[in-house]
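Private note to self, pasted from the team thread so I don't lose it. Backbone tokens:
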């Protein structure tokens, strides 16, 4: 919650919109929130969604005049976002920070917020409504419980509980209690829709996963199959599409200083504030059976093939982000912008892009990959964002397989050792092993595999690379057993351990 000293007694809300209208530096909402009806359900109503898809959706409504795309946002395991936004009637603002300027925009496309622990039934009812045509997701990589082989992890306690709940609902057609996972809640909602009307729907994954639409579709079909729901499985195959997407916008954690700045501009308190860079990109596979927002009118790219955009972004931008995060954190840099100010780290970033990543890519039409790499570094250098190295370093066990291991595998198949990618993995390993930066400050390991990672890292420095590379849940055999690559990682580990000693 809002913890700094606040002078405003009034919260941002529908009632306070009139008082902020016309204030200098404030814009929006682009559409009257009261006019919007719910047309989509979004899972993972965190900062990224609020700064990205929700903005595109509001802009699409404004450009097309179609007010049927209000959003029901579903929180994760915590009710915090619901507690922030419900008193504000779903309203929040986006503080856009360029290098030398900022602007504030109020967004009204998020019309309701549900917490699964208390509101699962409301979400199920919404997904069964024929007025809802889309379910979208930003639940992060760890929100998709998978085995090392990529299948649905039915042994995951939350997934197992949701499968049991779906079986119970199918048997009795009654609510079986709160969902435990986003995929489980979505799967149960789709089952409710199938039972009520069978109307088609699109499920749009917006997470950083390769072929994210195919992954989501495969997991949801496996969920239905595990519950013994053959009719639902057939309907998922015939009436539900899973468009792949690529999303891009830097959205750092909101600070108390950001909130005070927004309060000064708005004249009211906004506990749902998000911060973002000016840049935004959304590439969407045009695979919809029913209505959708006119996102292309808001600047999104609709295409038949997202893959070239997706791979370029994951391997260029996201991998570079991770490299700078781990190397920067080890050197004691609090933000990504601080890391980019270090010429040595910029050289490492360029080398990763040019020597290891670009040779594995097929550039999307109109994209110069070398210019794209430089634009990434320019964006990362924005000092006003305050994007912390620790924030980017989160969930490395989930992020690195999709950000860098594809590059590694492709280079090894081509007969080349990707030394910069080896450095990235080594920096992650030393981050885990040392747990502190060059100044002795603790580095938090925020990762769903934190205990397993610490256990594997424990031991001698000499065997660190081998121990972590042996984690089969992270590293495929073709990577972990390649002698020259193991040697390259181990060499970089030794160098980094010496640097942060």
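Design output:
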């Amino acid at each position: 919650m809002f913890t700094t000293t606040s002078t405003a007694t009034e919260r941002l809300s529908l009632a306070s919109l009139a008082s902020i209208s016309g204030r200098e530096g404030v814009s929006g909402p682009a559409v009257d929130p009261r006019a919007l009806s719910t047309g989509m359900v979004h899972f993972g109503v965190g900062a990224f969604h609020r700064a990205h898809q929700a903005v595109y959706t509001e802009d699409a409504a404004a450009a097309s005049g179609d007010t049927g795309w209000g959003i029901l946002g579903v929180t994760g395991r915590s009710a915090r976002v619901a507690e922030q936004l419900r008193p504000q009637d779903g309203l929040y603002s986006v503080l856009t920070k360029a290098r030398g300027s900022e602007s504030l925009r109020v967004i009204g496309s998020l019309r309701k917020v549900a917490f699964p622990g208390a509101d699962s039934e409301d979400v199920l009812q919404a997904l069964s409504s024929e007025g809802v045509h889309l379910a979208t997701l930003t639940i992060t990589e760890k929100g998709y419980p998978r085995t090392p082989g990529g299948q649905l992890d039915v042994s995951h306690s939350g997934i197992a509980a949701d499968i049991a709940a779906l079986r119970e609902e199918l048997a009795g057609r009654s609510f079986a209690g709160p969902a435990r996972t986003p995929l489980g809640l979505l799967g149960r909602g789709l089952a409710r829709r199938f039972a009520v009307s069978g109307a088609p729907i699109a499920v749009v994954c917006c997470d950083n996963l390769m072929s994210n639409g195919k992954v989501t579709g495969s997991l949801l079909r496996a969920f239905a199959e595990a519950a013994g729901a053959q009719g639902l499985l057939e309907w998922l195959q015939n009436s539900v599409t899973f468009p792949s997407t690529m999303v891009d916008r830097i959205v750092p954690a909101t600070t108390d200083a950001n909130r005070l700045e927004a309060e000064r501009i708005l004249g009211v308190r906004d506990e749902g504030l998000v911060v973002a860079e000016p840049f935004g990109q959304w590439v969407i596979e045009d695979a919809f059976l029913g209505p959708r927002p006119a996102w292309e009118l808001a600047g999104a790219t609709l295409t038949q093939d997202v893959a070239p955009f997706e791979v370029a972004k994951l391997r260029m931008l996201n991998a570079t982000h991770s490299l700078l995060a781990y190397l920067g954190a080890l050197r004691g840099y609090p933000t990504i912008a601080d890391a980019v100010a270090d010429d040595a780290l910029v050289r490492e970033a360029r080398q990763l892009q040019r020597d290891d990543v670009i040779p594995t890519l097929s550039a999307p039409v109109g994209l110069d990959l070398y210019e794209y790499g430089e634009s990434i570094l320019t964006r990362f250098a924005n000092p006003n964002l305050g994007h912390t190295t620790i924030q980017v370093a989160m969930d490395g066990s989930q992020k690195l397989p999709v950000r860098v291991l594809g590059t590694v595998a492709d280079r090894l198949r081509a007969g080349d050792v990707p030394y910069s990618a080896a450095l990235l993995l080594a920096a992650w390993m030393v981050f885990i092993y040392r747990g502190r930066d060059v100044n002795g400050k603790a580095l938090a390991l925020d990762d769903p595999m934190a205990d397993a990672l610490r256990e594997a890292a424990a031991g001698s420095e000499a065997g660190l690379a081998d121990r972590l590379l042996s984690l089969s849940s992270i590293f495929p055999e073709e990577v972990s057993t390649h002698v020259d690559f193991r040697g390259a990682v181990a060499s970089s580990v030794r160098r980094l351990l010496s640097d942060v000693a």
